Amino acid sequence: MRSGCGVAKTQVEIQEKMNDQLTGNESDLVAYYPMDIDNQYVLDGSGNNYHGIMIGPVVKSRYFSDECPKPDGTMDCPYPTIASALEDVRAWDRIIIREGRYTEFIMKDGINIEGTDYSWNQLDPDFGGPPDKHNYY
Questions:
Q1: 32, 49, 55, 89: which could form a disulfide with 24 (CB 3.0–4.6 Å)?
Q2: First CA to last CA across the chain, in angstroms?
Q3: Which domain holds residue 14?
Q4: pLDDT tens figures, 82-110
Q5: Is residue 32 part of a domain?
Q6: Residue 40: in which H helix or E strand, if any?
Q7: Do the domain assignments include residue 68?
């Protein structure tokens, strides 16, 4: 967030600067939010200490690179969120979710599975769970 320092800027002046990458050291910054998040706080990098508090939103990471344009659950292309992994997962898939802090609320068959331990049989009585060495057919 830049202050106008009491000077009106023309549309051309604004458009010339609107895509500039800020560093946080600009003299006319009121606040600078590079979206560095510390728990529920959004930190002001301008030095003016106008830190914000996150209330309610879910912050989602985006994972992308030249080598990985779309996450696929592998070690090289992990899913950025638990929900995005659940959208693609199929029975017996083994997927990798990117390391980090997740604040997602996940429901499966009407059961909140966040922070709760369930056995396979509790989630779906018709689904016995992954095969083991004793139940191959």
A1: 32
A2: 64
A3: 1-57
A4: 777 778 878 777 776 666 666 666 655 55
A5: yes
A6: none
A7: no
Helix (H, G, I), strand (E, B) or coil at 103: coil
Domain membership of residue 1 (yes or no) is: yes
The number of distinct structural domains making up the chain is 1
The span from the CA of 120 to the CA of 97, in Å, is 21
**Amino acid of residue 27:** S
Is residue 40 situated within a structural domain?
yes
∠ CA 105-108-111 to the nearest 5 degrees? 80
Handedness of CA 83, 81, 19, 22 (dihedral sign): positive
- In 3-state terms, what secondary structure has residue 135? coil
pTM: 0.36
Q: What is d(CA 51, CA 28) in angstroms, rounded to the nearest whole number? A: 17
